[in-house]
Design goal:
The protein contains 7 helices and 13 strands. With about 220 residues, it is an alpha/beta fold. Strands 1-2-4-7-9-13 form a 6-stranded mixed beta sheet, sandwiched between helices. The protein has a 3-stranded parallel beta sheet with strand order 5-8-10. A hairpin with a 2-residue loop joins strand 11 (about 155) and strand 12 (about 160-165). Helix 1 (about 35-50) runs parallel beside helix 2 (about 80-100), helix 2 (about 80-100) runs antiparallel to helix 7 (about 200-225) and helix 3 packs across helix 4 (about 145-155). About 40% of the residues are buried.
Length: about 220
Amino acid sequence: MTTGSRAPQVDGYSKISFWREKNIGIISLLSPGTFNLDTISELIKSLSIAAVDDNVRSILITGSNYSFSRGLDIPTGYLYADLRNYYESIKGLILFMISLDKPIFASINGSAINNGISFALLADEVFVSDNTKLTFDQNEPLIFLYSITAPKRLRLEDKKISINGINVDKDEMMRESLEISETIAQIPYQRDRRYRFNGFESILIQEELDFLDFYLWCEGKKDKR
């Protein structure tokens, strides 16, 4: 469905699609799945809808066209106020996901780059397959509480970074992700988040500083050319 065919169009949304199958709310990042302000806003809106829908027991976030997410999409110009506003939006999304009283799963149905990986690691469980391709290229600072999630969720395997996740068949990824999500939705993952993200407030502050330093340094370097 979202691994090759087109996700349903939702009125008022251009960066994501969302729908429900049985008791699972599905959110699909539309290719290339970059996080600009519109994407972040639409994610928060769709998660808010799922949060109050009694027919939704869990949420599954995936990508489209064999791409999960290509990472950040920063406002052009790197103005300080714009960067602060951008990070505040990211922080709002993080806080909403941590506080959501329903399990959140991610299915990396193709490539994930930089903060596309960091975002997926916020989920309670991550589905991976032989089609899952992870790339870190150092072209953006890693946020989304990466310093909390990465040590527990990433591992080195055959000289490549991979995710400690739930392995599914690459040709049946969506179907198997949905079936397993329905089964494990009864596990109270949302309660475990309080412990898993213990101390996240200080991490958010440090990530914001690193984020601002990175892009303001890039802008300053550009001005000297």
